[in-house]
Each structure stands twice: as C-alpha cells, then as structure tokens.
Amino acid sequence: MRHKAVKFLIFPTLVFALMLSSLLGFGCGNSDDSAETASVIDEYIIADPTGDWGYPSPYLRYSRGPGYTRMSYIFDTLIWKNEAGFIPALAEEWEYDESDNAYTFKLNKKVEWHDGEEFTAEDVAFTIDYVKSHPDPFVTLIGPSGITQTEIVDYYTIKLYLETTYAPFLNDIAGTMVILPEHIWKDVEDPMSFNSPEAVIGTGPYKLLDYDKAQGTYLFEAFEDYYQGEPLVKRLAFVKTSEETITAALRQGSVNAGEIRPEMANDMETDGFTIVRSPYGWNAKMTINHKKHPLDSKEFRQALGYAIDRQALVNITQRGHALPGSPGLLPPDNAWYNPAMDDLYQYDPAKARQLLEGLGYTLNVDGYFIKNGEYLKLDMITQTRHGFKDVGQFIKDALEDLGIKVSLSILESKTVDAKVEAWDFDLALYGHGGLYEPSILPKVISGPGFNSARYTANEILNKLLDDQLHEMNPDIRLEMVKQIQEIYAEDLPAITLYHPDWYWAHDSQVQLYYTNGGMASGIPIPLNKMAFVGR
Q: Most buried among 27, 214, 367, 396, by the most CB within 10 A?
C-alpha cells in the first residue's frame, strides 16, 4: 500500500510579486550565515526575454523547449542527461534485453512525490497508459516506437516491452517522458484543463511557488526531500527582461544569468562573468508551404535555395555569429552530418532564374517574374525574436532582387507557430532546436506540428526516416541518416538558413552548461536542473 507523509504544499496567490520585489531590492547572492551554508544560494534569478511558456504541468506547458525546461524542474524522467551524458534519475539502473526487446528499470527507493506519497513502479506503468491515451508532443508511445507491454516486476522494478527495436529509446522515451503521480492523475480525464495546484506535484528538485501568465514570471522553491540531494538553490525565478536590458541587469546584480548578444560576450567575460557558448543544436529555417502552387514544385523550392546567400545572411544579420545552414538540416558539427552537404546550394541567382524560367516564368521589363500575365508573389511571415526581423528583410530583398515580389509580415512568435500549423503562409521564418540525435528527423521533416515541414511526398524518404529509428547498428544507421540528408536537400521542403552561436552570461554561482545532446529529446538551453542541484 502507499503511505502518505504529513506534509502540505502551499501555493500563495500573491507571493511571487512580494518575493520578487524582495529579491530585486536586496540583489542576488549566496547566503553567508555560516561557513556551512556558504555554498547554499538563497535565490537565483534568470532573465528571460520571452516571458510566458505556459503553466508548468506536463500538458499545459507550451510545446517548445522553454516550456519543457520549466516543467522539468518539477517533474522527473526515468533517466536524465548532464554535460557528460545519461545519468540516473527516477531509475537507478537500467538494462536492455535484446531477446525480449525490452528495457528493465530499477527505481530509486528514496523517491517521493512533493505531497509525501510514495513513488513506485505503479506510477510508471500508469504514466505509460495515460500518455498513450493523452499524447504528449514530446513523446510517442504508440506505433513503431511504442511500448506494447509494461510488466511490474516488483514495487521498484518495471520492464517495458517495445513493439520493435527503437534505437533512440533512452533519449526520446526514458529520458523525455515525465512520470505522473497515479494518485492524482488517475481521475483527470482532460489534462488540458487540469490547472490546479495538484497538476504540478512531481518528484523533481523544485516545487512551483508562483506563476504569473500575464507577466511571464515563474518562481520555484527547492524540494528539501529531493532524492538526489537538497537543491543548492533555494528559490529559482524566471523574470521577463527585454533583450536590450539583460546585460545591464547582470552588471547591476539584479539577475544571475541570461542570454546575451554575441557581440557582448568578450566584454562580459572581461567584467568577470562566465560565458557559455551553445553547440549548433538549433536552426533558423525558412519553411515552405509545399502544399500550395507554385511552392509544390521541387524546382521552385530549389530556386529559392539558390537565391539566398546564406553566408552573407550570417555576416549581415547575425554579425558572423552563426554557421550557414546545411541543406540537409543537421549542422556540420553533428556526428551524423553528411559532408556531401558542404557544397550544395551555393549562392547562384543565375541558376535560380534558370529554374524559374524552366517552370514557365519570364522576367518582365520591371525586373519581376510573371506567368500568364500575373506577377509571381509570395507572402512571408516572421517574428522579432532572435533577430528574425532582420533575417526577413534580408530574404525579402534577396527574393525581390531575383524577381519575386514578397510581402513581409512581422508577427508574435506564437502567432507564427499557429499560422504555420494551420498552413496559413507561403514562407515562414522561425526556428527550433533538437538537432542532435537523428530521431529528430522524422519529427521535423514528416511529423505533425509547426516545427515540422510535414513533408510526406517522397516514399523513399519516408521509409528511411522510419527505418533509421529501428536500426541498432550505428554504422548502418549513419549511412541511412546520410541518405536522408541527401534526399531532404534534393526535395527541399524547408531551407535551413543558419545555425546560430548563442551566448549566456552568468555570475558563476551556479555552473550552467549545455547538456550533452540537449535536455530531454534535444533542448539546447543551458538551464539543466541538475546544475541547480549540484550534480
């Protein structure tokens, strides 16, 4: 039977405003009450220009990396990753049984939920059934990558049987699927409307103290009974701060960490801040609505590829702080990268015009293409975040120089996501991370959702995208992934524009780092919860 400890969670409605005022008034720093507590940090404030990423429950957090990151402080997965690779989390040990095509996880007996309830294998089994019935955008448990059977071996051991071999199981399932408390979620029929305090009871190192959707602020407090040790940071806050003022806030000591403009990295390092530079796990891309004419033509999309000088785009809009995008999607520093991508789609406006002329377009005397008496016009949407406004203007100029009329709209990032998901666009400029494990490829090429090109017209590509997930021989899988890049670059349903250099500055109280392979299924944000725990 389960037991319940005598503990209570309090979620005050006004505590965040009061505490934040206190934090900003007294600045940031370590507690110096005694030598024994010198390493304990009373509060740690993260400057965030993006604001709200949803209520940090497993279903109401926004389905991008920042939303998952905030939720990850409250909820744990079976295993996790740090700067070196996989580490134990809810599971102390795990092993793969090839004969059964199953993973066995031995759970940590010290784990308890934030409300004092005991954590057991029953919670894991329940979570798997629940996620099957209520899909999570980050986790797929149905189909070829799914779990067909859960066997509770004992109170703290569970065996998961897979439908087929699945190479990225540890990364995409065991290391990404957060475990739910059965005693709370068993009665929740609609997780998208479950926003009570009970919805954020987890096993993670932090409890939610306050969340302000309008202000885009979050306040977490340490869970003292965390099974991996009491967190070093007692209170963790995300405070919405404009990109322009983050460096000033860092220098004033009103925040401890934040993303900074690349050109400020050297100055901030000189000022004594620690600088963390991102790997190339993120891409800015131009998604093409290949369901609309004339964008449904491969040759037309290839013309767009030749029309954009990606190196000049990096030099001008990113001030050189990026790599030109790979036509095969994966960045050049990725272990799965195909070197054949290096020379594809070099800037060649003459080649682009030739392709358009082959589709029946002719240049009018005013320098714009026409066909059947109508101008070639495209609508392009983008956002202001990460300098996309400048990127949009660069691409608009490039395409108009080629002879295509372009109407550019600057929108909020969530509006761009919504319009892309609804296919309400011609060209869309935005980006996403996760470009580490090649399991990301079907998710962002053929899968559903706004991060994906949702391109399924090439059957060979479709088959390779699926087959590589189930190939356990890494050498054979590498060849499959290389072929995927070649076909993707040929069909070009989206154009990767660049892979940016991102820089974070922090005051060294917490050693922030970019997780090896990205957090969970590949989130490139240097705010791994284990940095705040001390592991």
A: 396
Per DSSP (E only), the strands in 194-310 are 206-212, 217-222, 233-240, 257-260, 274-277, 283-288
The Cα–Cα gap between 59 and 71 comes to 9
DSSP β-ladder status, 233-240 and 41-48: parallel
105: β partners = 94, 158
Q: How many CB atoms lie within 10 A of CB 39?
A: 11
* Token representation of residue 375: 């101008």
Name the DSSP class of 192: G
Decide: 287 and 335 in contact? Cβ < 8 Å.
no
**What is the C-alpha radius of gyration for the chain, rounded to an integer number of angstroms?**
24
CA 458/CA 101 separation, integer angstroms: 30
Render each residue's pLDDT in the chain as its tens digit; 535 residues: 333 333 323 333 333 343 444 434 334 444 343 334 447 999 999 999 988 999 999 999 998 899 999 999 999 999 999 999 999 999 999 999 999 999 999 999 999 999 999 999 999 999 999 999 998 878 878 666 689 999 999 999 999 999 999 999 999 999 999 999 999 999 999 999 999 999 999 999 999 999 999 999 999 999 999 999 999 999 999 999 998 999 999 999 999 999 999 999 999 999 999 999 999 989 999 999 999 999 999 999 999 999 999 999 999 999 999 999 999 999 999 999 999 999 999 999 999 999 999 999 999 999 999 999 999 999 999 998 778 999 999 999 999 999 999 999 999 988 999 999 999 999 999 999 889 999 999 999 999 989 999 999 999 999 999 999 999 999 999 999 999 999 999 999 999 999 999 999 999 999 999 999 999 989 999 999 999 997 6
Residue 64 to residues 213, 364, 450, 521: CA-CA distances in angstroms? 16, 43, 10, 11
**Which of 412, 21, 51, 353 is CA-nearest to residue 218?**
51
Helix (H) / strand (E) element for 160: namely strand 157-162
Cα 189 from chain centre: 27
Separation of alpha carbons 512 and 526, rounded Å: 6
Contacting residues for 145 by C-beta, under 8 A, at least 6 apart: 162, 163, 164, 166, 169, 172, 173, 469
- Assess contact for 6 and 198: CB atoms under 8 A: no
